[in-house]
Amino acid sequence: MEVSHILSPLNDDQRNAVASPANNLLVLAGAGSGKTRVLVHRIAWLIQAENISPFAILAVTFTNKAAREMRGRIEEILGQPSSRMWVGTFHGLAHRLLRSHWREARLPQDFQILDADDQLRLIKRLLRSSNIDEERWPAKQCQWYINSQKDEGLRAKNVEHFEDEYTKTLLTIYKTYEDACERGGMIDFGEILLRAHELWLHNPEILEHYQKRFQFILVDEFQDTNSIQYAWLRVLAGNQNQMMVVGDDDQSIYGWRGAKIENIQKFNVDFPDADIVRLEQNYRSTSTILNAANKLISNNHSRLGKNLWTDGSEGEQISLYEAFNEQDEARFIVDRLQDWSNGGNHRSDSAILYRSNAQSRELEDALLRVGMPYVIYGGHRFYERLEIKNALAYLRLLVNRDDDTAIERIINIPTRGIGGRTIDMARSVARENNCSLWQACTKCINESILSSRATNALLAFMKLIDELDSASSNMELHQKAEHIIMQSGLIKHHEKEGGEKARSRIENLEELVTACGNFDDAELVAEEGKGIDLTAKDFLTAFLDQASLDSGDTQASENEDAVQLMTLHSAKGLEFNLVFLAGMEEGLFPHKMSMDNISGLEEERRLCYVGITRAKNKLYMSHAESRRLHGDVILCRPSRFINEIPQELVDEIRLKTTIRTAGSSKSKNSGSHLRVTGQIEVPQTELSLGQRVAHGKFGEGVVLNYEGQGNNARVQVNFDTSGSKWLVLSYAKLKPLS
Ligand code: ATP
Ligand code: MG
Q1: Using only C-alpha atoms, what is the Rg of the chain?
Q2: CATH number given to 4-101+194-281
Q3: Which residues contact 453 (CB under 8 A, 6 or more apart)?
Q4: Which stretches of the chain drop beneath a pLDDT of 50?
Q5: Which fold, 284-378+562-656?
Q6: Which of 147, 323, 508, 542 could form a disulfide with 521 if both were Cys (CB 3.0 to 4.6 A apart)?
Q7: Quick check: CB of 31 below 6 Å from ligand 1?
Q8: What's the distance, CA 435 to chain centroid?
Q9: pTM (2 decimals)?
Q10: Which stretch of DSSP H or E encloses residue 578?
Q11: Which atom of ligand 1 lies closest to the CA of 31?
């Protein structure tokens, strides 16, 4: 059979790997060097050149999307469907095995899969029924504990016994949880892998069957496999089957979830005859981008080491933008994206990458403002997140006690002993009397319809809302939000959950305070300027309206050409022509939780390496001088990662805050200024961009931006103490300072 079409689109090293006679192969190579391509072509080679049946091939990748793409590519090369081949994620493949061999896996035929939320709810119920103090052993933490044991292949009975009460209790919970799952015929994600591994160990005849079948096992993103995944592969491979694993130690970014970079060394020990292939040519990025990535990662000590080069063009310098604050940063990015999109490029070929989900809100706001379609991967849009909806529900109740949806949402969040039956009762009273839930609750209390315990719980809730209202009635919007988030117990509620997810929920709540602080409604400000007295409630209502609008269905639809937003973690394996790395600041990236230990810091650096190497043609990095994050304005230092990139590869763009008197000399930095936002004049005033001004209420600040004309003209001022605000020019009465 003609096989040149398989080898011709490859370079020599890639070709050697694809057509290698070796039994086992380890392809260890940097980003964009064609690892995934080699893996795909190897499969095609095995089938067409070596005459291997697709039936004998098992390929594992990291995400379902990658698996679909991989199958598509193989079929494209082969020119025929290959349904008999197994291609999937670890979870997908293991699940398939368990469905076929449920009996041998000691599962009921109709076993149910618990997703992470189901799992958490089950653990909560078990804690309650076992009378375990949830303050000391938060459900989220128990879940974390159970999952990490499973990732290591350990059942409760295999965990070494610890004498301290804390771990002993965790272990008891694990055991109780195992029993409950067993009784209910349920398995969680970790269990899928563990069971599939045990299926091999306990059923030699089944193992033998699959060992005979899958003579060729191929694994992408090998650096991020955890212990149980590796063990599962290892057993399946046995002593006779061929393994090809491809990976990049510099892109190992899931250590915090149990991924083991040591698996690469383990592979070398387990398969000592394996050929090690190194690919050194990068086909993805310009040499500027590649050199930046190479230099950055060379600061890590624990690496296997490699050299990546490209004969591609040098490309543009990396643009570095130092923003005044996070809003300025978002606007800068969106301006660039508009230029890009107007230039006839696909928006879907651009991506904004960030370290923390909380950063997306400001970016989303800026995108929404100009109506640019976007999609967010692996995360909800800000105002649709559970914790934000909860906080907004409290704020809504302050404005309107009869908001039933809001009550339904938070009546028992955080848990305060108002059970399902109490709520049902309140609902039916509301129906009978055709009144709101709040009124129904009052009725339940006044007429002693409920047990005294339920009555007390309800009373406490209503009192809490009234107290929150009166205590915060005169506060400014962001103080109000902060007060409600703290005093409602929402922060504590998430603190108790523990774990990574809870931490990001708390960050998001703090980010909501920031959003309130930055909120400025042009109409309200105009009215205020006219001397109309506005109450704090007016601002709150306007804010809530804005939030509901934002959460409307403005996210791009499935097939719309949209900018891609995602965390750096979800960007693995992908590539885009235009990439923005936002929030390059110490504490944010590298993240403050990982800055203090070498291994944490090195994982952050690998994440940065992953981010930079997603870019094909153009990379922007940005950081802000000050950022309102988690409620406070903090002064930020640029990320150390910026300094690890050679200066000559970077072009600094900066809007300087130079002072000029109107109509006279030009801003000192008008050159770079032009490139940033275009030459913007502030007409009919004595103001210019960068001008220092004073405002009656907000104090002194610097003019950042300008938009609209005549009576609608607005300026954005970055005030020294109250942050950045948009003001209607004709009302703001700004006084230019010299
Ligand atoms: P990552 O580490 O990010 O997963 P990778 O090593 O898997 O990257 P690929 O995604 O396989 O790299 O390849 C990167 C890009 O380079 C792709 O667009 C791919 O099509 C292209 N490419 C790879 N090898 C060649 C080649 N020999 N000729 C032309 N293009 C190539
Ligand atoms: Mg890849």
Answers
A1: 29
A2: 3.40.50.300
A3: 417
A4: 552-554, 656-684
A5: Rossmann fold (3.40.50)
A6: 542
A7: yes
A8: 41
A9: 0.70
A10: strand 576-581
A11: 2
